[in-house]
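Late entry, written up from scratch paper. The run itself happened at the end of the previous shift, but nothing got recorded in the book at the time, so transcribing now.
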Amino acid sequence: MKTRKHEVAGLPGESGRIQMEPENIFDRVELETENPHHCEMPTTIAQRYHEFMEDSCCSQLCDGPNPHMARNVYGFIFLLTNLLAWMVRDYGHNALAELEHLKGCQGGHDCLGTEGVLRVSLGCFIFYFTMFLTTVGTTKLHECRDSWHSGWWPLKSLMWITLMVIPFFIPSAFIQFYGEVARFGAGIFLIIQLFSVINFITWWNDYWVLEKNVERCRILVITMSTMAYAASLAGIILMYIWYAPKASCVLNIFFITWTLVLLQVMTSISLHSKVNAGLMTSGLMGLYVVFLCWSAVRSEPATEICNTRPQTTGRGDWMTIVSFLIAMLAIVMATFSTGIDSKSFNFRKDEVEAEDGVPYGYGFFHFVFSMGAMYFGMLLIGWNLHQTMQKWSIDVGWASTWVKIVNEWLAAGLYIWTLIAPLVWKNRTNSESTSNV
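Output as recorded:
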């Protein structure tokens, strides 16, 4: 609060005293409210004004480094990049004349469609990977790397814009090479996401079955488990109806039936007396596996006769647009939620967090986003570097189908391993102890 000093006359025998006078109306209200004889209305107005300014996004963004606000800004930048890649793919032909003079575009042809998406993806990857290299290992607040992660937004905005432009000057051969590398990076992202999902499901179950919560949450656990298994079975039945209507749909029948087998195996191991993980974790993992299978068979090409559901036509009807926008937001949310979940990959569980420690791993956060840049590139081109995608379509084609199927099997395998791993290590430890004796 800024004030002005001026001297006023005191009582007889007293020297003059200094009176503080505020410089603006809101500070004057604060001083006046210190007098109990003043009404309370100005106090409420002043408090509300200051609370609004302190809690506003602008204040958090401009008043110095704020890691919690920073991660939201990075997520927004990632969303903008996704939208830019989609616009280059679906509507980039309008910019053909503007791209003719760029060396790497060969008359604009290689900067549109699939390669246009890959160029935007490359710029996004470089941005977040640079942030990863400059923030990895940050452990304390108020150090230089923390300030760089949470501040310097004008410079980073200019950096992002520059990296969105530079890839359009790169020759097509390098972009094709990046596309091959992006497949590998997108696979890393999917594996990280699987670990994060399994860790969240396990944490959720463990929290509800804690001794202090077991009585209060027992009904919730039973309800959630029942709903998860009911939804899983309903999803499998609907997949048989929609995506395997004929006996000739052998591949889809195999996908759906194997998903049912995986659900049964996960449940049996989870309920085994030596594991005793309960129904909730296996139910939620089963629901996730069923979702991956449904997403896989739905990604099959529109010409596939076994797919009886309406396909994306590229005409831009409201249902197609809404589905596409939901898918785009799901990509951003999946990347964001995985990026802030660095504790799932902290294997030193006994490590004590410092009071001035960073709230999440900056390096891990940016690494996930850099892999996510490759991931969204693959989704927008259907994991195929030579495929032409229809407007408003995302993650469609046989390549997308097989990626999701493998992801489903890997998810089930990782979950089963988390159940049996403690028993395996325990038996190995006991056998080593016996041999040493």
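The radius of gyration is 29 Å.
(Scratch paper discarded after transcription.)
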